[in-house]
Amino acid sequence: MSAIVRHHKNTRMSQIVIHNGVAYLSGQVCPDFLQSSPPIEEQTRSVLACIEKLLAEAGTVKSKLLTAQIWLADVSEFDRMNAVWEAWIDPENPPARATCGVTLGHPNVRVEITVSAAV
Asked: Cβ contacts of residue 28 below 8 Å, gap of 6+?
């Protein structure tokens, strides 16, 4: 059985969990959400930059994404978020993905994304 490795953990969660060659990231939101609520495009770019940084720390890259789950506070922003996603994602290696409209944990958060990737 392979070890379970956790990074950036606290009593609630870990930002990265690696097991059996797969990195699982916790849901990522715009890091400045307490100060403001930027447009969906800016929040999505910020979240994807956080994801890319965590993937690198886990020893992987976006071309190795396996799954993505995206939660939107307002599903009417789907196309605008998707334009940023499609510019960022490796078009040759898109992950399995689901997107839902939900009530997120803070009113300034417009998008939250979690991914898993092969290491």
From this structure: 47, 50, 51, 54, 112, 113, 114
Please report which helix (H) or strand (E) contains residue 100, including its range. strand 96-101
CA–CA distance, 46 with 91 (Å, rounded to integer): 20
Q: Which residue is associated with the tokens 């990195």?
A: 23
Identify whether the C-beta of residue 25 lies closer than 8 Å to the C-beta of residue 13. no
For CA atoms 71, 116, 23, 59, give the dihedral sign. negative
pTM over 0.85: yes
**Integer Cα distance of 61 and 107 in angstroms:** 30
The pair of three-digit structure tokens given for residue 69, joined into one six-digit string: 């789950």
Domains of the chain: 24-118 (3.30.1330.40)
> How confident is the model over 72-98, as pLDDT tens digits?
999 999 999 999 999 999 999 999 999
Spatial CB neighbours of 1, under 8 Å, sequence gap ≥ 6 = none
